[in-house]
Known about the structure:
It is a single chain. This protein is of the alpha/beta class. It has 10 helices and 10 strands. The chain has a 6-stranded parallel beta sheet with strand order 5-8-7-6-10-9, with helices on one face. The protein has a 4-stranded mixed beta sheet with strand order 1-4-2-3. The protein is elongated, with a radius of gyration of 23 Å.
Amino acid sequence: MSLRPVLRRWFSSASRSRGIPERPPPKHSKFNAEGEYVFGVNTVSAALAAKRRTLHRLYIRQGTDLDESSAMGRILQDAKSKGVNIEHCEKVTLNVLSDNKPHQGIVLDASPLEYVEIRDLEDVVDIKAGHSQTPPRAWPPLWIALDEISDPQNLGAILRSAFFLGVDGVVCSHSNCAPLSAATSRASAGAMELMEVYSAKNMCRFLQGANDQGWRIYGTDSGPQTVSLSDLKVDEEPTPTLLVMGSEHEGLRTAVKRLCHQL
């Protein structure tokens, strides 16, 4: 029996106990990102379709089925039509590029997405309503406000649900909110690529402005003063609505709760 694996584990354990940092995994200088690495079939496909990023290079695992009828084949054809450089590489390279996160054999080097800063809802909603390609609406707008959602997985999951359910927009607090990173896009199953995500520097001021503009504000919370969703009574007259969600650990801040019409 070889002692090499045992010794390797022992030295690693000894280094950690002494506070010595372990050697980081080797970097592929050949594959330094020009933007950021976006990974996963749905995410890369959405990034190519949305045309919101500058596309630098597409990395595909060697031996992948690239038939035009397959998802990977369609991505490859779309990338070629947009003039994206294609690189076929081994799985270990994709593991490094995606920081060992699930990449499904495909990674895209593209410019990052950023939040769109807004002061209030009135201008954004007016622009959407006046867009020539926007169909006439039979219902008032519904937006989600996220106050200090710090986990990229949670932010991505909310964006995924919001996009699927037809929410009109999502606005996040400027401080203590997860970035629009590759991990967030992956968790959103590509929805982040297809929708603008907004940011308000002062969430309380933003909510006060929405209240002044006639929006109905609901906050998600738990406690004796809250109403169960099944018992919630909405206005008979359709009203623009804002649903506010608080952080994973603390929930809604007290100042934010005070600006909600109903919890």
